[in-house]
Specification:
binds zinc ion; 8 helices; 297 residues; 67% helix; mainly alpha; elongated
């Protein structure tokens, strides 16, 4: 199986896994909202809010997969792959809003404590944990290097930790009589969400700013191109990510006047594909050194 077929298969599997997790998450989210209102627990409501963001995250991820499959056109020449990255960015922003909501609610409760029914809390947190564990198992096998699926998995994983937090808080309230544990757990869940939000924002913004992908060693890449017979120098080298697993490269190569340009291009493309998994490149060959021939980024 070649690299492209492998990526397509991973996406197919990812889509199925996402759909199952989407249904599971939505169903349980509704149950948890009911449980949160019934018991009066902010930790449980925070967990439900987190699950709602999971639901959005999974829906975005699925939607992004669908739209990324649309073929490129003359105008949208890169296709719609970046939708995956935009979905990841939108998720990050939504998560930030949820954090603000939870933290405000926790502060309100510090001023006016609310009675919490710990039995209901324990029941729903236990069920939530089960749903998260099942979702994690379904998604785990499909992630690969896909940013979209990584984001979805991280949501479910942090939600699992959240359910653990609610369970622990429920125990403390019921058996140790520590009512503040509910607010504390809510606050910790907000912290968990913050970690997920930060990772999503950092990675998606890096792609949108055309940062070179972190798994490609640019120095090594430059050295490899230098070693190609007939290449004297390299400038204006850019490597960027269209979407997870789809890297592009452009470069100017100073070559010797008598060099065989076909051989140089063939060798450069071979190195890029085999060593660096870059399947889309634009190479400009130059026989005259002219460092200021166009505006350089
Ligand atoms: Zn140039």
């Amino acid at each position: 199986m070649n690299f492209h077929e492998e990526q397509t298969l991973l996406r197919q599997r990812g889509k199925k896994a996402l759909l199952v997790c989407l249904v599971l998450t939505f169903t349980f989210m509704l149950a948890e909202v009911a449980g949160g209102l019934w018991s009066g627990s902010i930790a449980l409501l925070a967990d439900a809010a987190h699950m709602l963001t999971d639901f959005f995250a999974l829906s975005f991820a699925l939607f992004a997969f669908r739209i990324a499959e649309k073929p490129p056109t003359l105008k949208m020449s890169y296709g719609f792959h970046r939708m995956e990255i935009l979905a990841a960015l939108a998720n990050g922003v939504i998560l930030l809003n949820v954090i603000v909501f939870i933290v405000l609610e926790v502060f309100k409760r510090m001023l006016t404590p609310v009675h919490v029914q710990s039995g209901v809390m324990l029941l729903f947190a236990g069920l939530g944990l089960l749903v998260n564990l099942v979702s994690m198992r379904i998604l785990k096998g499909t992630i690969g290097g896909n940013l979209n699926l990584q984001g979805a998995f991280f949501h479910v994983f942090s939600d699992m930790l959240g359910s653990l937090g609610v369970l622990a808080a429920g125990f403390c309230i019921r058996f140790l009589n520590w009512p503040y544990m509910d607010s504390l757990a809510g606050f910790l869940i907000a912290g968990l969400i913050a970690v997920g939000a930060w990772r999503l924002l950092r990675d998606s913004v890096a792609v949108l700013l055309e940062a070179a992908p972190s798994h490609i060693d640019l120095e090594q890449l430059e050295n490899c191109l230098h070693e190609v017979k007939g290449v004297k120098d390299i400038h204006d080298l850019h490597v960027w990510t269209i979407s997870s697993g789809k890297e592009s490269l452009s470069a100017h190569l100073d070559i010797e006047k008598q060099a065989n340009t076909d051989n140089i291009l063939r060798e450069v493309n071979r190195i890029l594909e085999e060593k660096f998994r870059i399947f889309h490149s634009t190479i400009q060959l130059e026989t005259v050194t002219h460092s200021e021939h166009q505006e350089h980024f």
